[in-house]
Specification:
By secondary structure, the chain is mainly beta. The protein has one helix spanning about 185-194; strands at about 10-15, 20, 25, 30-35, 45-55, 70-75, 95-100, 110, 130-135, 145-150, 155-165, 175-180. The chain has 1 helix and 12 strands; from the N terminus they run E-E-E-E-E-E-E-E-E-E-E-E-H. InterPro entries: CLIP_Serine_Protease, Peptidase_S1_PA, Peptidase_S1_PA_chymotrypsin, Trypsin_dom.
Length: about 190
């Protein structure tokens, strides 16, 4: 997410998450649920906000992974509280990184990621994508359209958004995950906040 004192909120999503049954979703039909940690219950931090506008990257095509990014602009400002926090963008160097997935019990679960040292990732990176790997001992699949957050100097940064075709869901036997690299789109994002 990108925040600013005079901006409501800009959130990045994969563009393909805004297409349903071959039709692009209208902003009026979208709601953003902030602070969600369980699919089976609500918590004190959850907030639903309507979408004012969404912007899909002008070079995105449904057939590929390049430019699979969209910006969501919310109708009202987000109040940051314990369960709803901003994330910075713009750092390449980090000490640890995580993604999330929904466990069988319905709880949002952190998953540690590694971005190097795996033969499966070689050749999978595009101009604006990269590959990350999670351990074989992980029983939770990373979420489609989920984030890759990286910690640098005790601050969390949004590093990527998972690229995957939601219509191709199934068991996650392959522990490699492709992400759209947010750092490749900083100029494009800034264009919409100025």
């Amino acid at each position: 997410m990108l925040m600013g004192s005079s901006i409501t909120i800009l959130s990045k999503y994969t563009a393909r998450c805004l297409k349903y049954s071959g039709t692009w979703t209208k902003s009026d039909d979208l709601l953003i649920l902030l602070g969600k940690t369980s699919l089976h219950s609500m918590n004190e931090y959850e907030k639903v906000i309507k979408v004012k506008k969404h912007i899909i990257h002008e070079n995105y095509t449904i057939d590929g992974s390049e430019n699979d990014i969209a910006i969501i602009i919310l109708e009202e400002p987000v109040v940051f509280i314990e369960g709803i926090q901003p994330a910075c963008i713009g750092f390449e160097d980090y000490e640890e990184s995580l993604t999330t997935g929904w466990a069988a019990d319905g709880d949002l679960t952190p998953i540690s990621l590694y971005t190097d040292g795996n033969e499966k990732c070689i050749g999978s990176n595009g101009n604006s994508t990269y590959c990350a790997v999670y351990g074989n001992d992980i029983g939770v699949c990373p979420s489609y359209g989920g984030i890759h957050a990286a910690r640098h100097a005790n601050t969390w940064h949004l590093h990527g958004i998972r690229y995957a075709d939601p219509s191709d869901r199934g068991p996650c036997f392959d522990n490699t995950v492709i992400y759209t690299d947010i750092n490749s789109y900083i100029d494009w994002i800034v264009k919409y906040i100025n």
